[in-house]
Amino acid sequence: MYLKEFEIRWNDLDANRHLANSSYVNYMSHTRMSALMDHGIDHSELAKYNIGPVVFQEHIFYFKESQHGKITVSFELGGASEDGVFFKFIHNFYNEQGDNLAACDILGGWIDLEKRKLVPLPEEFLGKLYKMPRSADFRVLDKTDMRASGRMPVPMKP
Q1: Which helix (H) or strand (E) segment is 45 a member of?
Q2: Distances (CA, A) of 32 to 16, 110, 135, 136
Q3: Of 26, 58, 88, 103, which one has the greatest count of Cβ atoms within 10 A?
Q4: What is the pLDDT of residues 24-54, one digit of tens each?
Q5: 2-142: CATH homologous superfamily?
Q6: CB 57 within 8 A of CB 30
Q7: What percent of the chain lies above the pLDDT cut of 70?
Q8: pLDDT tens for residues 75-107?
Q9: Domain boundaries, given as residue ranges, for the chain
């Protein structure tokens, strides 16, 4: 499990004086990018291939509020497709006592930043991705996993 610790700042709180939803999202983003960089998948390397990660969905489960102090965010690879196009990242949030405050499952993929299309992860990164800390329920993903919720876009009707 990859861990990143944060000190909760005043501006991380919402009007109810507990950790704001947007702060959870920002902490997760920082944690997963740190995990990727620490495993050799950094911005400069991704730029060589003109690719970047894209999030399809984030499902956050809130268990207990957090108001101040330090918070630790974990990262684990919950799944990936064989070619690396798709991924599932899992985050958990813990307070200083080790209580699990929240969890999040993220589904996403890798896109070509010019063509704006999904692309397989280059072989150079695929091995690095598969060496990242894995969740106990890690599994190989395919395209159907990305729409498992059944939620599809619905155009607005006049």
Answers
A1: helix 43-49
A2: 27, 14, 14, 18
A3: 88
A4: 899 999 999 999 999 999 889 899 999 999 9
A5: Hotdog Thioesterase (3.10.129.10)
A6: no
A7: 100
A8: 999 999 999 999 999 999 999 999 999 999 999
A9: 2-142
Q: Which residues of 101-133 are buried (b: 16+ CB within 10 A; e: fewer)?
A: bbebbbbbbbbeeeeeebbbbeeebbeebeebe
pTM equals 0.90
* Model confidence pLDDT, tens digit, residues 113-148: 999 999 999 998 999 999 999 999 999 999 888 887
Residues in a beta bridge with 93: 73, 102
Of 57, 119, 109, which is closest to residue 86 (Cα–Cα)? 109
Give the H/E segment covering residue 61. Answer: strand 51-62
Token pair for 156 = 């607005």
Predicted local distance difference test score (pLDDT) of residue 14: 76
Q: Cβ distance 2 to 133 under 8 Å?
A: yes
Angle, vertex CA 135, rays to CA 107 and CA 97, nearest 5: 105
Structural tokens at position 24 = 């959870």
